Amino acid sequence: MNKSKRFLPLWGYLDMRIFYLGYSVFADIQRYSLKSCTMDDFPISTIEAVCLGTSVALSGIFFYIYRKKRRTVDKLNEAPRLPLDEKLTDILNSTPGKCLQYVVIEGAVQPVGEPLRSQFQEGTVGVVQKLVLKEHKLVWNSLARAWTDSERVLHERISSVPFNLVGTKKAAVRVLCPLEASGLDPEIVHEKFHQVSYGFTDIIGQYLSGEKPKGQLETEEMVKVGATLTGVGELILDTDRILKLRPPTNGSTFFLTPKDYDTMLAEQESQATVWQVLASLCALAGVAVMLWAARRYYHHLQARRERDRLRREFKRMAAGGDDEEAEVPANACIICMSEPRNCALLDCGHVCCCFSCFQALPHPTCPVCRQPIKRVVPLYQA
């Protein structure tokens, strides 16, 4: 059994648990933040909310791509590799529906009719032709204060003709919808760069407009006749007794590539691993943001408990410490002018307000000298 496939359920379970945990905690924090805006409680900062939402969204997207790649790798591992020979027709005849859902076939390219001829290389023929004309230029980036490369496709044309994959003893399989296949990398048969020439006035205009045309790149790519391709898809035996390879009807990925099966499988596994690592890193970043917010909230709770303790102590002081009624001192709070001054503001040492007014200060500064208040202590009068 494949080692990566053996650990797949564990990785998938952990990534999914992390994703759902991050999403639920993010929703709870958002609800708590909205509540805190009206109840003067501890809110999550905007930067933390943006970072947490971004990490959750990216981890979800990366995990979806990883699962898709992982399913493709699993199907490639399970797909049978059939030799392209005369026995292939007998295999399809004995199969229910004369159809194999997902198979791997390798063969040489052979056109059914007239092949496509290269427009630049005489004697070069193929079955898929791609002509591209790109414009290359330099664009001034005001943020980086430098010229950056930019390209734009001016013209693109893709043509194809019906073709077969031919094996031993003239056994052939017709390839349907080759342009829908993944991994079809045509060979570059022509590439030429046409450089732009300009004068002094053109240079002045380029600096004013912020664009410097470099030239146009002309390329021609072809899938040549005789090239070996690996096809992965649905194999059917049509009513005209012709074997055909087409995109799978069950939604699996249709491959048509010049690479061999082992190279293609290793490439897909590598891509799945990359997306898995990205999803895990984003999920861990979200967990780190949640832990940081939880740490801040813990310190906030400690500070609130200390404030509550001081408030209760000042209330006991205002009540005289026992059931006897205390006389209201003549030195009233300079803020509310009704309660006695019952706290000292440090480090300045001013005794000018009551504890309730101290808590209501918009900024922790002394109302007398405007120095920062580092701590407050209650005053006990005998």
UniProtKB/TrEMBL annotation:
Places the protein is found: Mitochondrion outer membrane
SUPFAM superfamilies for this protein: RING/U-box
CC terms in the record's Gene Ontology section: mitochondrial outer membrane
Any one biological process term the GO annotation gives: protein ubiquitination
InterPro entries per the UniProt record, alphabetical: MDM2_MDM4_MUL1, MUL1-like, Znf_RING, Znf_RING/FYVE/PHD
Alphabetical keyword list: Membrane, Metal-binding, Mitochondrion, Mitochondrion outer membrane, Transferase, Transmembrane, Transmembrane helix, Ubl conjugation pathway, Zinc, Zinc-finger
Catalytic activity: S-ubiquitinyl-[E2 ubiquitin-conjugating enzyme]-L-cysteine + [acceptor protein]-L-lysine = [E2 ubiquitin-conjugating enzyme]-L-cysteine + N(6)-ubiquitinyl-[acceptor protein]-L-lysine
Domain RING-type: start-end pairs: 333-370
GO MF: ubiquitin protein ligase activity; zinc ion binding
Matching Gene3D superfamilies: Zinc/RING finger domain, C3HC4 (zinc finger)
Segments crossing the lipid bilayer: 7-26, 46-66, 274-294
Catalytic activity, EC: 2.3.2.27
Thylakoid keyword on record: no
PANTHER family the record matches: MITOCHONDRIAL UBIQUITIN LIGASE ACTIVATOR OF NFKB 1, RING-TYPE E3 UBIQUITIN TRANSFERASE
Protein name per Swiss-Prot or TrEMBL: RING-type E3 ubiquitin transferase
